[in-house]
Amino acid sequence: MDSKSFININAELSFSVLVAWGILRAYGKFLNLSVRAPRWAVAVNKIWVLGIGVAVFGLLFNIKSDHLNGIFWLLTLGGTVLLLLRIRDYRPARTILLAIAPFALHYLLEFLAKVLGNGLLDEYDDAFDTAQGFAFIWLATFLLIARSQKKNLEAERLLREEEEQNKRRIEAQNAELERLVSERTAALTQQAEELRYTLTELKTTQAQLIQAEKMASLGELTAGIAHEIQNPLNFVNNFSEVSAELVQELEEECQKAERDPELENELLADLKQNLQKITHHGQRASSIVRGMLEHSRASSGERQLIDLNALCDEYLRLAYHGLRAKDKTFNATLETHFDPNLGQVQVISQDIGRVLLNLLTNAFYAVQQRQKRQEAGYYPTVTVSTCHTSEGSEIRVRDNGLGIPESVKQKIFQPFFTTKPTGEGTGLGLSLSYDIITQGHNGTLTVDSEEGRGTEFVIVLPE
Q: Coiled-coil region(s) at which residues (predicted)?
């Protein structure tokens, strides 16, 4: 073989090696050989070794260049078939194997026809061309099918990975939820124990606060009584002194030799009148003390017929004097509008007294706070009125104090809610009053207020 022929063989074979390397690289990437068959992927990258081997084989045995190309391509096709059989579990690989089978068979037959000669290739040239065209069409069709299969498999793989990720995520979330539930259960158990303990403490504290509220109410009542009782005691003291003087004058008159009967009768009449006034004011003081004792005693729960007008008038003055005991400078106008036809009402007098004392104390506190603003032309006024309506006996307690803001009007009957500064109220007075009226007497207690103008509480006691 001359040097020119050797160069031609090497050039043609080199071109075939380069084409085969490109095709196999594309198929290797398509089939992901680096993962499915790593050794075969290395072999594909070293296809040039096969080309060198075929070239040396052709040089040693003086084989024609077209025969060497055929041998190279047959070996390449054979290796490809073995590779596809190696990864036949992969569906696109089986499809590609099916795609190249006709092409490989056609190429083998054509190569044998060239090697054997005898004019077979020329005689059946049309048949070989038709078969070649069919092989290429078959190859292209099944390559497209393989490509579609790979896309579907890739989509399925991604879907499985996503499902697997979701499954792992759900398992992780379930594990986390179980941990959180366990922690939450333990925390709730501990909180339940703490709440039971706190509830016991709250009940104890509530009882103490209710007692404190009652004692505060009793303190207000006592302060009012102390001032209210001072008036009859002053009368008793004054009339006692005058009566002592009258007795002394009468004794002196009796010791005279010439007694004046008219003077003695006049002195006796004055003494009798003074004693009557002492008795009247003493009884007044006794009734005040008796009212204080009734208020301080626990409610018996028994209803009695009482004069509601007299009860309202008494607690109006007691509440007023109770505030004056704290603030000597405080003065207010007390107005009453009592229905003379109201008659006696059957109620628990101690409880209604507590309600009236609480409402009136709050009313005097409200007008006192507004008075401290020193508004021009303002004079504190508290009004108590009663009347008989179709719903029952009605008591209205009105003041022209600061009024109640709309934001807190709905809360004033809630336990422990107070608008007074810390230390001036427990927040139980109105709550207890509401319970006494609504639950103890099946009545109603409502409030109507305008901020900056005053407040009116309305009690309705059904018959």
A: 145-190
Distance CA(289)–CA(292), nearest Å, equals 5
Least confident segment among 41-45, 221-225, 235-239, 440-444: 221-225
- Which pLDDT value is given to residue 324? 81
Would the pLDDT of 69 be above 80? no
Which residue pairs, CB below 8 angstroms and at least 24 apart, start in 307-312? 307/344, 308/342, 308/344, 308/345, 308/347, 308/352, 308/386, 308/393, 308/395, 309/338, 309/339, 309/340, 309/342, 309/386, 311/349, 311/352, 311/353, 311/356, 312/336, 312/338, 312/356, 312/384, 312/386, 312/395
* Contact predicate 382/316, CB 8 Å: yes
Closest CA to 453 of 365, 334, 370: 370
Q: Which residues are CB-neighbours of 34 under 8 A, at least 6 positions away?
A: 28, 41
Please state, in angstroms and rounded to a whole number, the distance separating the CA atoms of residues 405 and 314: 30
381-389 and 333-337: which strand pairing? parallel
Residues 44 and 67 in one domain: yes
In whole numbers, what is the pLDDT of the chain averaged over residues?
77
Last residue of a domain, one of 272, 297, 322: 297
- The candidate with the shortest Cα–Cα distance to 240, out of 281, 297, 208, 200, is 281
Average pLDDT, stretch 78-103? Answer: 78
Phi and psi at residue 67, in whole multiples of 5°? -70, -35
Please tell me whether residues 309 and 360 are part of one structural domain: yes
Regarding predicted confidence, which is higher, 368 or 323? 368
**Co-location of 130 and 260 in the same domain:** no
Q: How far is CA 272 from the centre of its chain?
A: 77
